[in-house]
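Minutes, structural biology subgroup

Action item carried over from last meeting: produce the structure token record for CLUMA_CG006313, isoform B (Clunio marinus). EB confirmed the sequence was re-checked against the source entry. Recorded below for completeness.
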Amino acid sequence: MNQNEWEIRETQRQRELEEAKGRAQQMEKTMRWWSECTSNWREKWAKVRNERNQAREEAKQLRSQLESAVKESHSFKKEKNELEIQISQLKKEMEKVHLSLMKHAGQQKEPERDINESPDQFSNDGLKNVNSEDGLVTKARSVGENEDNKDNKIIETQSHEVLSKKFDADFEEKQLIQKLNSKSDDDDTEYFTQKLKMLQLRLDDAVKALSGEKDEKKHLLKSIDKLRQELEDCKKDAVREFLTMQETHHAELRIINNSLQEEMNDRESLERRLFETRAELERLQSENACEWAKRERLESEKITLERENKKIKAELLDFQVSTGRSGFNAMRPQDALDSELRLLQQELMEKNKEITELRHSQSKVKKMLSEANIEMGHAVRRAEQYETEVKRLRSRVEELKKELTIAEDELDSASSAVRRLQRTNEELHARLHKYEPDNDYDGGRPQTIL
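Output recorded by EB:
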């Protein structure tokens, strides 16, 4: 009965050890899978970090482009104000010229004209000149009004050329005005014709400069729209990548938590089995101690029985010698002694058999105990390794969580920078629309005056 129980327990322990080995192999597979996942995750984060750095560089470039565009807009605004001042000065000077023309037209006399020119023709020519001058003034005013509504995106080089031409024209105009006061009445018509041609040339130059500025403005608007579209695309791509990264990170965290929970459950079950194995070993040790005590007791009983047998044999011999009886009377107690001796020998053989069986079972128990101790040592070492690996994985998970929070903060800062750039771009676009003219300047181009 005891041997069957030992065999059942041995098979149960073997089965538990096989289960522990299978769980250990499963844990090793899980650890390898975890190492592969961490390496893949590290590669993904490296790619995401590179993309984030590229997005930062693009944002810096866009910021620099916006700053340059703002500086250009300020410079163009300054040039626009200077042009407005120049136009106002031109208006005043043209009014002065108009007044001087009216004055000289009233002071001219009929006898001083050419013989071929009649007074009606002279008056008609004067009126034509005056009307042409009035038309020029009105057209210049319309040009000034259109110029007030022009955008502040004007090319700096063309503006400087226009300003230099206008300053030269102002100087020439002043010289012509001074000459106008010194010339005689016969040269008035030619002088005014030259003055009108000069003003017409200046007006044509201004129209050409404004048309070039308009083309440049269109080009700048197209470039700003393109930059805004690129900024929106970058923002959408960044948001999309952030969402995908967040989803993948949450999925990986769920997988990590599930695997950690499974590892914790396996560890708890392994600890429970180790506790049960330790309790079983303690019980086996106590049973072994009891068997050893029983064996020692049986050996002591065997020794006492052998001593009693020897003592009885000695007493029997002494009794036979002392009595000296023979025949039937001596034969009868000898038979009784022999039967008693046989009984004692049989009991001794049974005791020896029990002792051998106990020794055999004790050797089996020792062997099983040594194997169980070895397996328990291996299981304890594996449990310690698993515990250290779990601690390392937990620390790695915490580091990855910290890196994820840092990356999320950096991505939030990048998205906020993108939003700020978008707001500045929208403000710049609104300013451009604010300074955009109400009507097209090509419809108000002045006609050539000859």
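Discussion: The CA atoms of residues 381 and 387 lie 10 Å apart.
Next step: EB to file the record with the rest of the batch.
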